[in-house]
Write a structure and sequence with these properties.
Chain lengths: 369, 643
């Protein structure tokens, strides 16, 4: 009888998972963030971010080439033994936990404002908590497969919003074309490559995927598709909202959806948007939370991750409550996570790859002697 | 007498110094004891204190050996304490369950079922079983009185009133030989027994027949029993099984064998029209309760020598015959082996229906939706067998089970194969919309009226508000009242006998709804919501799926009341994740969309034209991937060539 001992999933599942991890920010803040940094040139900044990420990923995947089938923790172990493996695991896990907590808080604050103004924040957050705990228990296989089914629907919903808003587009909003200046576009744009911080999950997937070619292709396809969604999202947002009002720090895509009117009868369809928005949030949170738990458990050498799910969920829940208000959350999100996330995702991981390559070569040479 | 060996304590058990267990079998003559302490296990085959193992026991302070049944030794196992501690203080270590995953078969297409070789193994096993000698004490005796006494004991004669035991004489050469047959009245065909069993044995044996038989056994089976299905068996067990399943058994004095004949003749329903899966175009025959009629209904449609009907007995007491049906050179052998393994692994006393069996072989018993297709249509089973699935037929059940399935198969109707593809696609859209309405509409109503009023267009909002003005209940109570009333009417309609049922349903719904609106208990718009929901649930083609939708609907009502669209989305997220984690006989329940496999849009949500359906579903990993030729409309090519 044929039995499967290891979980495997395909390229499409991995691509949808990565797209959701990165593009969920379109619903939350990405468009507003680019306008905040580069004014009318926000979309140019999005183009720059995506181009830089493509280059950085190319470097990373080149460095990764000789470690086929290994995830970032295995590679860290090759580089610096169990100590580095633990440090890497806790660093990456910590970043993912922080992302999960901040995003959960942000989504909960937004949903409270949009739909549940009289409900306490903790009540709203319990729904997200329930989602991530159940998804965690059901495992990575169900999370990625669910992504493969749901993300195309979410993307379709997003495209409907973009198409629905077309009549409101004003091309003059693009000018001045370089917004607050080229310097801002390039310099701040580089920091904002942190938008792709979740790309680090890609280097946790290799044990679940086929091989190097799979990881490489998934990465390129994901970066390509994410770039498309981020750039179009940013561009349409800038085209619809004139510069000062596009700085409104609240749910850019929701604000766009509010403008959609289809005849006299359908005037307020933005509530339907809550479905794709919440689904996307649940998919994001469950994936980030699962990989955070997985990473920390693996770094600590734990055999099972299920017993860690509820304790870690409580930790995430508690961290999410630390910022006193929505403004503080936005500050942490744009001033810390989305400014320095690139250090972990692109610098730290690349350094580990480099170190592991050197260590591997050193060992090979020693063996040769 | 004694043997002593140093053996490590069994893995996972706590070994403690000066703590030991002594176990003995119940058989006094062997006195086999196991002394188990921290370092060694001794096997004693002598008397207490005379062997090394027992001396160790004595040295450690054992004054006596006590007799224990070896089966109960777990109770004295010290690791039990550590396991319990672990369970309560930490967590229960998950059992290493190996999940069955359906992978590509080892056999190549058209290899006539070589595959992984499991089919050949089963064949050898069946041959070995038929050649297996009877167990000691179970052999048929040559003395007819012993056989007679045994059968009377087995069937509690004369207390049991429907068992017939008929004694008579057979003339063999110039002597008379005693014989008897035994069968159940009502389960057998009296005509057949009288004309083709008893008459030849009692009358023809007197006639001068051409003497070609070598012995009495040969004579009986070759010349005196002109019946198509006669077997020679040597065990009482097989004889009893035959009688229980409507056969008759002949015992002859001086022969240590019995003759079993299949003379089933119980009353049963004929082949009638399907009651539940009604279609307009296509065959109008349904299964009945007879196993062989059902298997024949499939065979007459497929007419393929590779269609295998493999019998498995389920139920320790009822010994219900079940048939596993599959096409040998199409179905994945690992799948067939898994179905066989699950059926053989069902340990119940009685198996009365396919519905009960379904619950015992499905992957998840908690998940609301069925993971097995249960159908009363032989044509649908035939179509699913052709696609590479495996069918299970249970004797006494008018439904066949088909595995594996995916969530999308549950939205397909047998009629999809008989009507043109544009109609099928329209009907499938309607079914999905119906399923969506049946599942979510009441929940969405509660969510919108409580949390998302802004999305209701102003005119509609005014209409809803005007209709709800005099209703004293919140919308949650209102909808629960109506949903429960609707479920009551539906359940009562089923239980009320005959033609009154539908009448009660219509009258009940009309009067109740009208009266509830008039009494200002519910608003008119809610009647529309509940009615549309009900109609939607009836449009779902799979009966079991409709049940699960009914259950989940209440969950969505509560989630909608708790947190509006957030709650409903959470519900969808949980159901979605649960579904993707699920498998039906090794096939992911949400295939071919998650995981994505090839040919996913050809006959899943949409249906491509018939000529386009060239391949079998990829996720079934069949031996033959192709179902039909690339150019199935060959006549079209020929026409083009002629031009």
């Amino acid at each position: 009888m044929q039995m499967e001992k290891k979980i495997k999933f395909g390229r499409w599942e991995a691509v949808t998972l990565t797209i959701n991890l990165i593009c969920t920010k379109i619903f939350l803040y990405f468009n507003r963030l680019t306008v905040e940094d580069a004014g009318n040139a926000g979309w140019l900044m999005a183009v720059f971010i995506c181009a830089v990420v493509a280059v950085l990923y190319s470097v990373q995947i080149w460095l990764y080439k000789i470690f086929e089938g290994k995830d970032i923790l295995d590679i860290a172990e090759i580089a610096g033994g169990k100590v580095l493996k633990a440090i890497t695991g806790f660093a990456l896990g910590g970043l993912l936990f922080l992302l999960a907590a901040i995003t959960m808080r942000k989504f909960s604050e937004d949903i409270k404002t949009v739909s549940l103004p009289t409900s306490p924040l903790s009540y709203v957050m319990v729904f997200f908590m329930a989602g991530i705990v159940i998804a965690g228990f059901l495992g990575v296989e169900s999370i990625v497969r669910h992504s493969a089914i749901v993300i195309p629907v979410v993307v379709a919903g997003y495209i409907v919003i973009l198409l629905g808003i077309m009549p409101k587009i004003d091309v003059t909003n693009l000018f001045p074309i370089f917004g607050t200046g080229v310097k801002n576009v390039l310099l701040k744009g580089f920091y904002r490559t942190s938008i792709f911080a979740e790309l680090l999950v890609l280097f946790m997937l290799p044990p679940f995927l086929g091989g190097y070619e799979d990881v490489k292709n998934i990465g390129y396809v994901s970066v390509g598709l994410c770039s498309f969604f981020l750039i179009t999202g940013s561009l349409v947002y800038i085209l619809v909202f004139p510069y000062p009002s596009s700085l409104e720090p609240f749910l850019p895509v929701f604000n766009m959806a509010r403008l959609i009117g289809l005849g006299r009868f359908f005037q307020r369809i933005e509530s339907l948007f809550v479905f794709i928005w919440v689904m996307s949030a649940l998919m994001y949170l469950s994936a980030v939370f699962f990989f955070a738990t997985y990473t920390v458990s693996k770094a600590a050498g734990l055999k099972y991750i299920r017993p860690m799910i509820i304790p870690f969920a409580i930790i995430v829940f508690s961290i999410a409550f630390l910022p006193p208000d929505l403004v503080s959350v936005i500050k942490i999100e744009s001033g810390f996570v989305n400014t320095w996330g690139w250090v972990v995702t692109f610098v730290f991981i690349s350094l580990i790859f480099l170190w592991a390559r050197i260590a591997k070569r050193g060992r090979r040479e020693n063996r040769g002697k | 007498m004694c043997s002593y060996a140093d053996v490590r304590p069994k893995h996972g058990y706590v070994a403690m110094t000066a703590v030991y267990c002594i176990k003995m079998t119940e058989q006094d003559d062997t006195n086999e004891a196991i002394i188990w302490h921290n370092i060694s296990v001794g096997i004693c085959k002598g008397r207490s204190g005379q062997c090394n193992a027992c001396r160790i026991g004595t040295r450690l302070g054992v004054s006596d050996l006590w007799t224990l049944n070896l089966n109960t030794w777990e109770a004295y196992d010290l690791s039990f304490i550590s396991r319990q501690l672990k369970k309560y203080l930490f967590f229960e270590e998950p059992k290493k369950l190996e999940k069955f995953i359906l992978k590509p078969d080892g056999g190549s297409a058209g290899s006539k079922g070589t595959g992984t070789g499991s089919f050949e193994k089963v064949r050898e096993k069946k041959i070995a079983e038929s050649d297996k000698p009877p167990e000691p004490g179970d052999e048929v005796k040559s003395d007819i009185d012993s056989n007679l006494t045994h059968m009377k004991d087995v069937y509690s004669i004369p207390v049991n009133s429907d068992i017939i035991l008929r004694e008579f004489d057979i003339t063999y050469g110039c002597k008379s030989v005693r014989a008897f047959i035994i069968f159940f009245d009502g389960m057998t065909d009296r005509e057949v027994i009288n004309n083709y069993i008893l008459k030849p044995l009692m009358v023809n044996s007197v006639m001068p027949l051409k003497d070609t038989a070598e012995n009495l056994e040969d004579y009986v089976v070759r010349q005196l029993m002109p019946h198509c299905q006669v077997n020679i068996d040597t065990s009482y067990k097989k004889a009893v099984d035959t009688v229980n399943f409507g056969g008759c058994v002949l015992f002859v004095d001086g022969l240590d064998v019995c003759f079993t004949a299949d003379v089933k003749g119980w009353d049963h329903r004929g082949v009638e029209k399907p009651n539940n899966e009604i279609i307009i175009k296509g065959p109008q025959e349904a299964f009945n309760e007879v196993l062989r009629t059902n298997s024949a209904q499939i065979r007459k449609r497929l007419k393929d020598e590779d269609l295998i009907v493999e019998d498995v007995i389920v139920g320790k007491v009822s010994r219900t015959p079940c048939s596993i049906m599959y096409i040998k050179d199409v179905a994945n052998e690992a799948l067939v082996a898994e179905v066989r393994r699950r059926l053989e692994g069902v340990e119940v006393d009685y198996m009365l229906d396919a519905g009960a069996l379904e619950q015992l072989i499905e992957d998840s018993t908690v998940y609301p939706s069925p993971q097995v297709i249960s159908t009363e249509r032989p044509d649908y089973v035939a179509e699913l067998l052709v696609s590479g699935r495996v069918a299970i037929i249970v004797d006494g059940s008018p439904n066949a089970l088909v595995v594996p399935i995916t969530a999308f198969d549950l939205m397909h109707s047998p009629e999809d194969n008989y009507i043109r593809f544009p109609y099928v696609n329209l009907l499938r859209y309607i079914r999905y919309i119906a399923g969506f309405l049946a599942l979510l509409l009441p929940g969405l109503y509660v969510a919108i009226t409580n949390y998302h009023q802004e999305m209701i267009p102003t005119d509609l909002l005014l209409a809803i508000e005007a209709s709800r003005e005099k209703v004293p209940f919140p919308s949650l109570v209102e909808i629960l009242l109506m949903e429960i009333s609707f479920e009551l009417i539906r359940e009562a309609g089923l239980r009320v006998p005959g033609p009154i049922g539908p009448t009660l349903g219509i009258i009940g719904a009309l009067i109740l709804g009208q009266a509830a609106v008039a009494a200002n208990i519910v608003s008119p718009i809610l009647i529309i919501i509940v009615a549309v929901t009900g109609i939607g649930s009836f449009a779902i083609p799979n009966y079991s799926l409709a049940y699960s939708v009914r259950i989940m609907r209440f969950g969505f009502i509560f989630l909608g009341a708790m947190a509006g669209f957030l709650g409903i989305t959470l519900g969808l997220f949980i159901i979605g994740n649960w579904s993707t984690a699920l498998k039906s006989f090794g096939v992911p329940f949400t295939a071919p969309l998650g995981p994505r496999t090839s040919g996913r849009y050809k006959n899943v949500i949409f249906k491509a034209p018939e000529w386009k359906l060239e391949y079998r579903p990829d996720y079934l990993n069949t031996k033959k991937k192709r179902k039909q030729d690339e150019h199935s409309m060959k006549w079209k090519r020929d026409t083009e060539k002629r031009k």
